[in-house]
C-alpha cells in the first residue's frame, strides 16, 4: 500500500484560539509567535480511502505558521519549517506529501521543498483547478448562465492556479478578463493564451471594475484579506472562491442573497474514509488539493506532480481522469462552509431575477 501525508497549517489567529483556548487571553501577534515555535507534528491518521483499484492511508501533518506568517517571515525560515513537516511525513512512511493552503505558495511553489525531501511532493493545484472549474460550470448551469455567452473574470490570473484556469476558460467563455496586480505579467499571459488558443482576452489591474461586469468569477489570489465586497458583484453572478484565506468577504453571504458564491474544489473521497481531524467539512469530503495527493498514492504515482508556477492544461486533464478512475467526484456545492441545497440555489436564482428586473425598469 502506498501511503501519503498532507501538510496543513493554521489559516489565521481565530483558528489558533479556537483550538488552543488558553491563547484567547494572549495578544494576537504574541499568540501567533508562541504557536510558530511549536515543532511540526502529526495531527491525525487518515484511514479508509478505498477505490475500485487500490487503497491508501495517510496522515495530516501540522506546520504551525499562520497564513500571515507564511508571507511575512523570511522565506528561508518558512521553507525550513515546511521541509520540517515533510520530514515528519517521511519518517511516518509516506511516499508522497501534499502541500496545503499557503505551504504551496511560499517561495518557488514546492520545488525547493521537493529537493530537500526523499519522497514525492505535490501542491494539489492541478486537481484544485479541475474541481473548481467543474463546480463553476455546474453553478453556472443552475443559475441559467451560458458560459459560451458569459463575461468571465479570473482574479489572480497570473498565479499558478489562476493561469491554468485562464487557459482552460479561454476556450469556454464568451468573453474573458484576466486580473492581477502586475500588468506586464498579464500581458505575457494574454499573449501566451493567444498563441495557444487563438483567443484574445482582456486584461486589467482594476479588479473592482472587472468584477462589476462579470457573470462568472473564478478568484484564486494569495491575499491575506478579503478582496470582494457585496457592492462589487452584479445580480445573478456566480463566484468560485478557490483562495484560502477566502477572497470573498463573509458580508456577501448576508448582504447579497442574489449572488451564488461557491467554494472551489470540494471533493467526495471514495471508501469509508476517516480523517480523525475536523477541518470543517462533512464526512467523506476533502479539499481537492488533499484529494490529488490521495489519487497519486492510489495510482502508485509517487512522483513530484503539481509543483512550481507553471501548471499545464494536460496535468489538469490527467489528474481529473485519474480522479474519475478512482471514484473521486465533486461533492455538491458549498458556500461559506455550508452545503447548498437545490432550494438554496433556486432562491438565489429567483432573487437575482427580481433584482435584475428592478434595475432594468
Describe the structure.
With 361 residues, the chain is an alpha/beta fold. The protein has two domains: 4-126 and 267-329, no CATH class; 127-265 and 333-360, Rossmann fold (3-Layer(aba) Sandwich), CATH 3.40.50. The protein is 40% helix and 19% strand. The chain contains 13 helices and 16 strands. The chain has a six-stranded parallel sheet with strand order 8-7-6-9-10-11, sandwiched between helices. It has a five-stranded mixed sheet with strand order 2-3-1-4-5, with helices on both faces. A three-stranded antiparallel sheet has the order 13-12-14. Strand 6, helix 7 and strand 7 (175-179) form a beta-alpha-beta unit. Helix 6 (125-142) packs across helix 11, helix 6 (125-142) packs across helix 12 and helix 7 runs parallel beside helix 8 (183-197). The longest helix has 19 residues, at 342-360. The termini are far apart.
Average predicted local confidence, pLDDT: 92
User: Given the structure, what is the number of helices?
Assistant: 13
> Quick one: how many beta strands?
16
Helix and strand pattern: EHHEEHHEHEHEHEHEHEEHEEEHHEEEH
Largest sheet: 6 strands, parallel
Give the overall shape, derived from the CA principal axes. Answer: globular
Uncertain segments are none
How is the largest sheet built, in terms of strand order?
Answer: 8-7-6-9-10-11
Structural class by SSE content:
alpha/beta
Strand fraction band?
15-25%
- Helix content estimate: 40-55%
The tally of domains stands at 2
Radius of gyration: 20 Å
Amino acid at each position: 500500500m502506498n501511503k501519503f501525508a498532507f501538510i496543513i497549517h493554521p489559516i489565521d489567529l481565530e483558528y489558533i484560539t479556537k483550538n488552543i483556548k488558553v491563547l484567547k487571553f494572549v495578544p494576537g501577534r504574541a499568540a501567533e509567535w508562541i504557536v510558530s515555535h511549536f515543532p511540526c507534528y502529526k495531527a491525525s491518521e487518515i484511514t479508509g480511502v478505498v477505490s475500485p483499484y487500490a487503497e491508501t492511508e495517510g496522515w495530516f501533518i501540522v506546520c504551525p505558521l499562520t497564513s500571515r506568517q507564511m508571507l511575512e517571515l523570511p522565506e528561508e525560515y518558512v521553507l525550513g519549517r515546511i521541509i520540517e513537516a515533510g520530514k515528519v511525513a517521511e519518517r511516518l512512511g509516506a511516499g508522497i506529501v501534499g502541500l496545503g493552503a499557503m505551504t504551496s505558495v511560499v517561495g518557488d511553489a514546492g520545488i525547493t521543498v521537493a529537493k530537500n525531501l526523499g519522497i514525492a511532493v505535490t501542491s494539489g493545484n492541478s486537481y484544485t483547478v479541475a474541481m473548481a472549474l467543474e463546480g463553476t460550470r455546474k453553478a453556472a448551469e443552475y443559475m441559467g448562465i451560458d458560459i459560451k455567452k458569459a463575461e468571465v473574470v479570473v482574479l489572480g490570473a497570473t498565479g499558478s492556479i489562476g493561469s491554468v484556469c485562464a487557459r482552460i476558460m479561454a476556450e469556454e467563455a464568451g468573453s474573458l478578463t484576466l486580473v492581477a496586480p502586475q500588468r506586464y505579467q498579464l500581458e505575457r499571459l494574454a499573449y501566451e493564451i493567444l498563441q495557444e488558443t487563438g483567443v484574445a482576452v482582456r486584461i486589467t489591474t482594476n479588479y473592482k471594475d472587472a468584477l462589476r461586469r462579470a457573470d462568472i468569477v473564478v478568484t484564486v489570489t494569495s491575499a491575506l484579506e478579503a478582496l470582494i465586497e457585496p457592492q462589487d458583484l452584479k445580480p445573478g453572478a456566480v463566484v468560485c472562491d478557490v483562495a484560502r484565506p477566502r477572497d470573498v468577504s463573509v458580508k456577501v453571504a448576508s448582504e447579497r442573497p442574489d449572488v451564488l458564491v461557491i467554494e472551489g474544489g470540494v471533493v467526495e473521497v471514495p471508501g469509508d474514509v476517516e480523517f480523525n481531524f475536523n477541518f470543517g467539512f462533512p464526512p467523506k469530503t476533502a479539499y481537492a488539493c488533499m484529494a490529488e495527493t490521495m489519487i497519486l498514492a492510489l495510482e502508485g504515482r509517487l512522483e513530484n506532480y503539481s509543483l512550481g508556477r507553471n501548471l499545464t492544461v494536460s496535468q489538469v486533464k490527467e489528474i481529473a481522469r485519474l480522479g474519475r478512475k478512482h471514484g473521486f467526484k465533486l461533492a455538491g456545492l458549498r458556500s461559506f462552509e455550508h452545503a447548498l441545497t437545490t432550494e438554496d440555489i433556486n432562491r438565489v436564482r429567483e432573487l437575482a431575477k427580481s433584482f435584475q428586473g428592478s434595475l432594468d425598469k
